[in-house]
Amino acid sequence: FAGSAPKPYNCDGVTTPCAYDQIGEANVNVTGLLAGIGAPTSFSVHADSAPNFYVVDQPGPSDQNLRALERAVLSQTVTNPFTGATETYANYLADPIEMKVLHMITADPARPADGTPLANPCPTTTGATTVTAPVNKAECLTEGSFSMRLKRVLIAAAAAAGLQMTPVHASELHIGFTLDPLTLDPANHRSRETESVLRTMYNGLVAHGPNMELVPELAESWKWIDPQTMEVKLRSGVKFHSGATMTADDVVYSFTRLLKPGAIGGKTSPRKGLLGPVTDVVKVDEHTVRFVLSAPWPVLPAMLTFQEVVNKDFTEKTGADGMATHEDGTGPYTMTQWRRGDSLVLQRFPGYFGGAPAIPSAGKACAERVIIKIIPENASRVAALLSGDVDIINELPAHDIRTVEANPNTRVAAVNGTRTFFVALNNNRPPFNDVRVRQAANHALNRKLIIDKLLNGRAVALNGVMSPAAFGFNAKLPEYAYDVKQARALLAAAGHPNGIDVTLDADGPQKDTAEAIASLLTQAGIRTKVAVGEGSQVRAKWANGGKREGDMWITSWGNGSLDPTDIFEPTLMTGGRGNSAGYSSKQVDTLLAEGGRETDTAKRAAFYEQAQSIVHADAPWIFLWLPQDLYGTSAKLTGWKPAASGWLNLRDACVH
Length: 656
Fold this sequence. Notes:
Blueprint: E1 2-4, E2 26-29, E3 42-45, E4 52-54, H1 64-74, E5 77-79, E6 86-88, H2 89-94, E7 103-105, E8 138-140, H3 148-160, E9 172-177, H4 192-198, E10 206-208, E11 214-216, E12 219-226, E13 229-234, H5 248-259, E14 278-285, E15 288-293, H6 300-303, H7 312-323, E16 333-339, E17 343-348, E18 369-374, H8 378-387, E19 392-393, H9 401-406, E20 410-416, E21 419-425, H10 435-443, H11 447-453, E22 459-461, H12 484-493, E23 500-507, H13 511-523, E24 526-533, H14 535-542, E25 552-558, H15 568-572, H16 586-597, H17 601-618, E26 621-634, E27 637-638, E28 654-655
Parallel strand pairs: 9-18, 9-19, 23-24, 23-25
Antiparallel strand pairs: 1-4, 2-3, 5-6, 7-8, 10-11, 12-13, 13-15, 14-15, 16-17, 17-18, 19-26, 20-26, 21-25, 21-26, 22-26, 27-28
Helix pairs in contact: 1-3, 10-12, 16-17
């Protein structure tokens, strides 16, 4: 259990020394906990010059009794030698300047007395390749190795310390997530994945409830003073992670950063467009602010779900560059470590105000610590779930559903998403400048077949632009039935009795779907070749204002607010920033403009329903589907279900 002090050795096979010359020293009093094995009543993690070292570390996740010992040890108070701060040993280990995990393997062969390097004495996953110091045991840095002997010793130690040998509530929650946040600044991105992670640390004035309904979060209530002024009452007693109390000044400052040109280190917030005609936010009193608009915009409460509130003093002191890597939010978790491209470590915020009262179980976060592991590769993410390394993964591939369902320790969780998939048809040049050809393409596609075979049935076929859950959805739109004969007849009527030859653009992730679509279109006389390109290049090719030289493009558009303003205007209004098809209809433009400023709910819905009917007949796209968002979870996970917004919503998530 204790060996003579090791000298630095390599873990990467090059020159970087591991562990013992990086750790520093931290003493933890574990009186009684280790008495059962005759070990010292305190242990130290020493630099290589220290005379002795002792290691107690995290056992496998299935060893609940060992977790009891672990928690007792990690909760001890230590003095951080680097900062001088007094903190728990768990926080000390999580500090980015120290190593995250120390493990000791007691059953490995002793190193040669002459100091001859051992050839990888540790498991291959450790990365340790050489050892140059003669010691009694083979110490390794690993992410899970523990000898059975040490396990038995620790169990005995726990028993001697009087700890109950029953399953206990796990202190950590592990997430396997596709993408690293682009930034920690809530005002300086346009990424759904970044926002999902930031929402574990920050809150907005408004949030989504379990059914995507709007609920007050940092706001207590809101009301329209007139069609261009909305007043928001703020919740009292909300604390930032620094301990400062949130006030109206923080809210005004947060939205000023979003609205004012050049407010973020000389740059304008990329989220400014999400605030539409909002021109100013003014303070009424310490707990009241007013949003001032240049035109009526009834969707404002829904759009406030996309904006988080920052601490004015902290942000001004930290600066734009500092905000990219530091946070001081009001959310259930505070960040203690961020290793770019690898992981984020979050600690439960004891001062959390509890979240939106309208959401069941409002209160403090359940897990003590959350580790978000960045795992972009689908296969690796699924493997991590199946092995028990993580408790939740996002973007579960449809073809892995059966594998996850067949594993007794894992589950599949699904929710209808908010992203509409479609094939944009180039309305500005032949052959798709003819509505009959566009309608033929819709009849040529067997959407049900693709949904069943490629998406494992986890999608809803769409006949138009919007999700069935969106405000103003037109449920009476007729279906473009799969009908090859009708497709060929429409092609002939448009002057193409022998069919047409076209190209379908796609990025890598859509390759399989694009090829399936191309096969079906070809059978109906729309002979389709698939061109796969890098995502940014394909988007640039189809960007509004560009040359738009392609024929077709399989793409999608998110509608997180579930309001037509968020999807209809950008993708189908003349000149819209996401109008990749180049579609233009004066009648649709007028209806969208009327719907965007109408405050009467019924009249507003009618405008959008009529616009959907026109777009359905004009068929600027091949209407595809609204996929479910798929997640994989541990069978031990409780208190969590996926949200259509894509937010992780980890407050109530626990692993037992």
